[in-house]
Amino acid sequence: MPEETRTVGYICPVCGKSVIAERTAFQLAAGDSALPCPCGKSELSFRQKGDRCEIDVPCLFCAKDHTAVCANDALLHQKLLALSCPASGLGCCFIGEERAVFQAMEKLEQAVDKLRMDDQTDSRGAFLDEVVMGEVLSELRDIAQRKGVRCGCGSSGYGVKVGYSSVDVVCARCGAVLRLNAATPDDLDDLCARYTIVIPGKKEIDP
Protein backbone atom coordinates (compact mmCIF):
# COMPACT_ATOMS: atom_id res chain seq x y z
CA MET A 1 0.00 0.00 0.00
CA PRO A 2 1.56 3.35 -1.02
CA GLU A 3 2.37 5.78 1.78
CA GLU A 4 0.01 8.74 2.16
CA THR A 5 1.45 11.96 0.78
CA ARG A 6 0.67 15.62 1.35
CA THR A 7 1.24 18.53 -1.00
CA VAL A 8 2.66 21.78 0.43
CA GLY A 9 2.70 25.14 -1.34
CA TYR A 10 3.70 28.76 -0.67
CA ILE A 11 5.06 31.77 -2.59
CA CYS A 12 8.64 32.80 -1.82
CA PRO A 13 8.66 36.45 -0.63
CA VAL A 14 12.18 36.96 -2.03
CA CYS A 15 12.05 35.62 -5.60
CA GLY A 16 8.24 35.69 -5.91
CA LYS A 17 7.97 32.17 -7.32
CA SER A 18 5.58 29.44 -6.18
CA VAL A 19 7.17 26.60 -4.20
CA ILE A 20 5.15 23.37 -4.33
CA ALA A 21 6.44 20.02 -3.11
CA GLU A 22 5.22 16.63 -1.95
CA ARG A 23 5.98 15.26 1.50
CA THR A 24 4.98 11.93 3.01
CA ALA A 25 2.80 11.97 6.10
CA PHE A 26 5.68 10.24 7.90
CA GLN A 27 8.11 13.02 6.96
CA LEU A 28 5.76 15.67 8.38
CA ALA A 29 4.91 13.76 11.56
CA ALA A 30 8.29 12.22 12.37
CA GLY A 31 10.12 15.39 13.41
CA ASP A 32 11.27 18.86 12.42
CA SER A 33 11.58 19.47 8.68
CA ALA A 34 11.76 22.29 6.13
CA LEU A 35 10.71 23.11 2.57
CA PRO A 36 13.25 25.59 1.14
CA CYS A 37 12.72 27.69 -1.97
CA PRO A 38 15.17 26.76 -4.78
CA CYS A 39 16.46 30.35 -4.62
CA GLY A 40 17.83 29.54 -1.16
CA LYS A 41 16.49 32.72 0.46
CA SER A 42 13.33 31.46 2.20
CA GLU A 43 11.95 28.26 3.64
CA LEU A 44 8.80 26.85 5.21
CA SER A 45 9.62 24.99 8.44
CA PHE A 46 7.75 22.44 10.56
CA ARG A 47 8.40 21.83 14.27
CA GLN A 48 6.64 18.91 15.94
CA LYS A 49 5.20 19.55 19.41
CA GLY A 50 3.50 16.31 20.45
CA ASP A 51 0.04 16.23 18.85
CA ARG A 52 0.54 19.72 17.36
CA CYS A 53 2.85 21.24 14.81
CA GLU A 54 4.31 24.76 14.66
CA ILE A 55 4.74 26.02 11.10
CA ASP A 56 6.85 29.06 10.20
CA VAL A 57 5.50 30.45 6.93
CA PRO A 58 7.37 33.02 4.78
CA CYS A 59 4.83 35.70 3.89
CA LEU A 60 4.95 37.50 0.57
CA PHE A 61 2.62 40.24 1.82
CA CYS A 62 4.38 41.14 5.11
CA ALA A 63 7.93 40.17 4.03
CA LYS A 64 8.31 38.33 7.34
CA ASP A 65 7.46 34.89 8.73
CA HIS A 66 4.18 34.00 10.41
CA THR A 67 4.02 31.17 12.97
CA ALA A 68 0.90 29.01 12.92
CA VAL A 69 0.00 26.11 15.21
CA CYS A 70 -2.21 23.31 13.97
CA ALA A 71 -3.23 19.84 15.09
CA ASN A 72 -1.30 17.03 13.46
CA ASP A 73 -4.60 15.42 12.51
CA ALA A 74 -5.42 18.46 10.33
CA LEU A 75 -1.87 18.64 8.99
CA LEU A 76 -1.90 15.00 7.89
CA HIS A 77 -5.51 14.39 6.89
CA GLN A 78 -7.45 17.60 6.13
CA LYS A 79 -8.32 18.04 2.45
CA LEU A 80 -6.94 21.58 2.46
CA LEU A 81 -5.28 23.39 5.35
CA ALA A 82 -4.93 27.11 4.58
CA LEU A 83 -2.67 29.37 6.64
CA SER A 84 -3.40 33.07 6.13
CA CYS A 85 -1.58 36.37 6.56
CA PRO A 86 -3.30 38.24 9.45
CA ALA A 87 -2.73 41.63 7.79
CA SER A 88 -4.00 40.91 4.25
CA GLY A 89 -6.29 37.94 4.89
CA LEU A 90 -4.73 36.20 1.89
CA GLY A 91 -3.50 32.63 2.15
CA CYS A 92 0.26 32.31 2.43
CA CYS A 93 0.58 28.51 2.72
CA PHE A 94 -1.56 25.55 1.70
CA ILE A 95 -1.18 21.93 2.82
CA GLY A 96 -3.38 19.04 1.75
CA GLU A 97 -4.47 16.94 -1.18
CA GLU A 98 -2.59 17.66 -4.41
CA ARG A 99 -5.55 18.90 -6.47
CA ALA A 100 -6.87 21.15 -3.69
CA VAL A 101 -3.44 22.70 -3.07
CA PHE A 102 -2.80 23.37 -6.77
CA GLN A 103 -6.24 25.03 -7.11
CA ALA A 104 -5.60 27.21 -4.03
CA MET A 105 -2.13 28.18 -5.27
CA GLU A 106 -3.57 29.15 -8.65
CA LYS A 107 -6.04 31.51 -6.94
CA LEU A 108 -3.27 32.92 -4.77
CA GLU A 109 -1.10 33.59 -7.83
CA GLN A 110 -4.03 35.48 -9.42
CA ALA A 111 -4.37 37.62 -6.29
CA VAL A 112 -0.63 38.31 -6.21
CA ASP A 113 -0.67 39.31 -9.90
CA LYS A 114 -3.50 41.75 -9.12
CA LEU A 115 -1.50 43.22 -6.22
CA ARG A 116 1.59 43.69 -8.39
CA MET A 117 -0.46 45.33 -11.14
CA ASP A 118 -2.08 47.72 -8.64
CA ASP A 119 1.32 48.63 -7.20
CA GLN A 120 2.70 49.37 -10.67
CA THR A 121 -0.21 51.69 -11.46
CA ASP A 122 -0.38 53.10 -7.91
CA SER A 123 -4.05 52.12 -7.75
CA ARG A 124 -4.19 49.91 -4.65
CA GLY A 125 -7.49 50.61 -2.89
CA ALA A 126 -9.22 49.63 0.34
CA PHE A 127 -9.71 46.09 -1.00
CA LEU A 128 -7.67 43.82 -3.24
CA ASP A 129 -10.54 43.89 -5.76
CA GLU A 130 -13.28 46.36 -4.88
CA VAL A 131 -15.74 44.94 -7.43
CA VAL A 132 -15.33 41.38 -6.14
CA MET A 133 -15.62 42.54 -2.52
CA GLY A 134 -18.81 44.47 -3.27
CA GLU A 135 -20.36 41.49 -5.05
CA VAL A 136 -19.34 39.09 -2.24
CA LEU A 137 -20.98 41.35 0.37
CA SER A 138 -24.10 41.65 -1.80
CA GLU A 139 -24.31 37.87 -2.24
CA LEU A 140 -23.83 37.38 1.51
CA ARG A 141 -26.76 39.73 2.16
CA ASP A 142 -28.91 37.76 -0.29
CA ILE A 143 -28.09 34.48 1.45
CA ALA A 144 -28.85 36.04 4.84
CA GLN A 145 -32.21 37.40 3.61
CA ARG A 146 -33.32 33.85 2.76
CA LYS A 147 -32.15 32.80 6.25
CA GLY A 148 -29.28 30.82 4.80
CA VAL A 149 -26.64 31.79 7.38
CA ARG A 150 -26.36 29.63 10.48
CA CYS A 151 -23.79 28.20 12.86
CA GLY A 152 -23.08 24.64 13.95
CA CYS A 153 -23.86 25.69 17.54
CA GLY A 154 -27.48 26.27 16.50
CA SER A 155 -27.48 30.07 16.30
CA SER A 156 -28.56 32.07 13.26
CA GLY A 157 -27.15 35.35 14.57
CA TYR A 158 -23.90 36.54 13.05
CA GLY A 159 -21.63 39.52 12.48
CA VAL A 160 -19.29 40.40 9.61
CA LYS A 161 -15.67 41.58 9.66
CA VAL A 162 -14.50 42.88 6.30
CA GLY A 163 -10.79 42.57 5.52
CA TYR A 164 -8.60 43.51 2.58
CA SER A 165 -9.28 40.32 0.62
CA SER A 166 -11.73 38.32 2.71
CA VAL A 167 -14.88 38.52 4.82
CA ASP A 168 -15.14 36.81 8.21
CA VAL A 169 -18.64 35.66 9.18
CA VAL A 170 -18.67 35.48 12.99
CA CYS A 171 -21.30 33.62 15.05
CA ALA A 172 -22.96 36.00 17.51
CA ARG A 173 -23.37 33.23 20.09
CA CYS A 174 -20.20 31.10 20.20
CA GLY A 175 -17.79 33.38 18.31
CA ALA A 176 -16.82 30.78 15.70
CA VAL A 177 -15.53 32.23 12.42
CA LEU A 178 -15.97 31.24 8.78
CA ARG A 179 -13.68 33.06 6.34
CA LEU A 180 -15.03 33.83 2.86
CA ASN A 181 -12.32 34.74 0.37
CA ALA A 182 -13.05 37.88 -1.66
CA ALA A 183 -9.89 38.25 -3.74
CA THR A 184 -10.73 36.94 -7.22
CA PRO A 185 -13.78 36.35 -9.46
CA ASP A 186 -13.43 32.63 -8.66
CA ASP A 187 -14.07 33.42 -4.98
CA LEU A 188 -17.30 35.16 -5.97
CA ASP A 189 -18.32 32.19 -8.13
CA ASP A 190 -17.69 29.83 -5.20
CA LEU A 191 -19.96 31.90 -2.95
CA CYS A 192 -22.69 32.22 -5.59
CA ALA A 193 -22.75 28.42 -5.85
CA ARG A 194 -23.77 28.16 -2.18
CA TYR A 195 -27.39 28.25 -1.06
CA THR A 196 -26.45 28.35 2.62
CA ILE A 197 -23.44 29.35 4.72
CA VAL A 198 -22.70 27.20 7.77
CA ILE A 199 -20.20 28.49 10.33
CA PRO A 200 -18.41 25.57 12.02
CA GLY A 201 -19.59 26.08 15.64
CA LYS A 202 -17.03 25.91 18.42
CA LYS A 203 -19.27 23.78 20.59
CA GLU A 204 -22.87 23.02 21.37
CA ILE A 205 -24.32 25.79 23.54
CA ASP A 206 -27.62 25.52 25.37
CA PRO A 207 -30.07 28.23 24.34
Explained architecture:
The protein folds into two domains: 5-121, no CATH class; 130-199, no CATH class. The protein has five helices and 13 strands. The longest helix has 24 residues, at 98-121. α4 (130-145) runs parallel beside α5. It is an alpha+beta fold and 207 residues long. 29% of the residues lie in helices and 35% in strands. The chain has a four-stranded antiparallel beta sheet with strand order 2-1-8-7. A hairpin with a 2-residue loop joins β4 and β5 (52-58).
Number of helices: 5
Major β-sheet, in short? 4 strands, antiparallel
Computed Rg: 18 Å
Q: What does the overall shape look like?
A: globular
Which percent band covers the strand fraction? 25-35%
Span between N and C termini? 48 Å
SSE sequence, one letter per element: EEHEEEEHEEHHEEEEHE
Uncertain stretches of 5 or more adjacent residues: none
SSE map:
Elements: E1 5-11, E2 18-24, H1 25-30, E3 33-36, E4 43-49, E5 52-58, E6 65-71, H2 72-77, E7 80-84, E8 91-96, H3 98-121, H4 130-145, E9 149-151, E10 158-162, E11 166-171, E12 177-181, H5 185-192, E13 197-199
Parallel strand pairs: 9-13
Antiparallel strand pairs: 1-2, 1-8, 3-4, 4-5, 5-6, 7-8, 10-11, 11-12
Helix pairs in contact: 4-5
Task: Based on the model shown, name its key terms.
4-stranded antiparallel β-sheet; 207 residues; alpha+beta; 5 helices
